[in-house]
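Team,

Forwarding the record for the chain on the shared tracking sheet. I've put the sequence and predicted structure together so nobody has to dig through attachments.
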Amino acid sequence: MLPAPLKRAVGVHGIGQLVLAFQKGAVYGWPPDAFEEIEARVDGMDPFDDAVADFAHAFLSTANDADIDGQGRIRIPPLLRDLAGLEKDVVVNSIGKRIEIWDRESWEARFRESLKRHATSTGLPAKRGA
């Protein structure tokens, strides 16, 4: 179930569906139009490049449409639950246009790693390719 603030935001924006995919240990979810932006970027890349093919196989191939019901629940497909190790306790984060659904233990480890790396940063990460 989506946390109450996120459920309200989804309702305000009329979002009734998310595209879910596995990424970096979690299930990520985007409104369909935001996910289409990702697909469009990949469509513009060389399909024979190994990194592009790996991304398509590891990420895009896991994408599934998921409806958000009136109670703010999302049914996560078994493959995605398995890949992310989702069982009982989960954490849901809202980051920009996406949500991330983590197994609680995996999230806590990821969060600690991020805090350590961020401790030496000077602010926002540099834009790649800039």
